[in-house]
Design a protein that fits this description.
Elements: E1 5-7, E2 12-20, H1 26-40, E3 52-58, E4 61-68, E5 76-80, E6 85-91, H2 99-114, E7 120-135, E8 142-154
Protein name: AraC family transcriptional regulator
Length: 158
Amino acid sequence: MIFEPVTLEKDCWISGIEKKTSPDTLYEDLPVLSKEFAKIKPSIKNPIRPLTTCVATGKTKIFMGDFVERKDSNFASLSIKKGQLLVKVKVPFRFQAFLPAKVAGIRKEFYQHWLPDSGYVSLQWQDLEVYHYRRRYFRKSRKMVMELWFLLENKKED
């Protein structure tokens, strides 16, 4: 798999909810965060269209939110500035049941094989799962497209 760092072309704002976590409790905390986000989601103002949702994981916290046109001070927010260095990986899948295994494989390849020798390090938010929802014109349904965003900075010389 080829990981190609690029720079973000425009500022991104994401409004949602944040929760403290740890590696030991992350998988128990995600469903709780998801339920809390579902309650506030209808109140988020200025979502971009088509709808794009994000789950960001860090060492001590997780965040779930929708990409918005401008920051909403009523909710926790995450901003990613224009020029931010990142790797975007499209996650192809046919069946949603296979998605967790596919994502785990990409993360393993990135963190264990590519990142150590790349000259980069991860930021506070290690990676973002970005879900794009697209309306299908030939069916009354939505199609989800997923990307992993790995936020990076240049490794500092010792």
